[in-house]
Task: structure prediction
Amino acid sequence: MTLEPCFHFGRTPPCTNFLLKNRIKKVVIAQKDPYHKVAGQSIEFLKNQGVSVKLFSEKEFVKEKFWSTGSFIYSIRYNRPRIILKWAQTRGGFLAPAKGKSGYISNEYSRESVMRFRRIFKNTMAAPGTIQADMPLLNSRRLPVSLKDAFASSENQSFLETLLLRDDNLDKTIIEDKTLRLFLAPKYSNEWKREDEINYINKQKEIAGDFIFLSTDKKQTENIKNQNVSSFFVNDFNDFKNIIEILKEKNMRQIMIEAGPVYSQKLLEEKVPDILLIYKSENKPEWEKEGRTFEGPRKLAQKNDDYFTRLEYSLFDVISLMGDTLLVYKGRQCDA
Result:
């Protein structure tokens, strides 16, 4: 467990009080809290109270730390949220047809895991092309499938599988959709009119949780605000530093981005994502001829890992989802 950073408020951390109140005599800690105002004080405090404390090495419980406290540790260490880029591709390396709405590439088990990731990560963002093509809701609705069925064949259930199954053991009233959704607003055009934007905003208002629009057009920013919606102006969506500053203002620890080929390629080139969630799914024959893609999915389809190595990503986790496969790559800075 990681003790909460509360010493700067002049009081004992709540979890430390809990340990003392219940007369716990031995505590095992997976990692120190890097928060500079705590800096191991909880450990010393417990020892002074007669509690035996053991601190595991950094090489132990790596995946458990990565998926639980990882985002907090990362945001403290690098002073910015951990960025997750998610995409789904066919085995041939395509993301969507070149024309028309893309529909679903992955199966229902993969899509249910995405819903659960949205609840885990708390914050999700959609790029302009994705909004214009698919108008995603970005909420974390439940699908009529059980992930337990997908993981039933696992000989030793991984921590990631356990994490994704967490909702099954919680009271349904606890897992309300309280995710924060961010949208990079498409510019007004023949394909995206003001009426489309209003309709999309009204759909978002029907969903639980908060949402924010970012725009590169000051007039559009005001139009969105006139709909009683939080909206921020940014000069350029490709200047992700500006967007990260807004995420920091909202005290975000991490955010998952859902984007199309163009924006995903830009993010990868700039080495913005810290984590890649890649769903490899069944073939879509009609997409293999006219589908859209970019370098990452192509290289993955070719089983060429040199591309990801060059961008300083390493394969970190793999889980099977009833025919689909989820690959998790982590960036160099994204240690546990």
Observations:
- The first helix runs from residue 14 to 21.
- The first strand starts at residue 26 and ends at 29.
- Confidence is low (pLDDT under 50) at residues 1-11.
- The two ends are 13 Å apart (CA to CA).
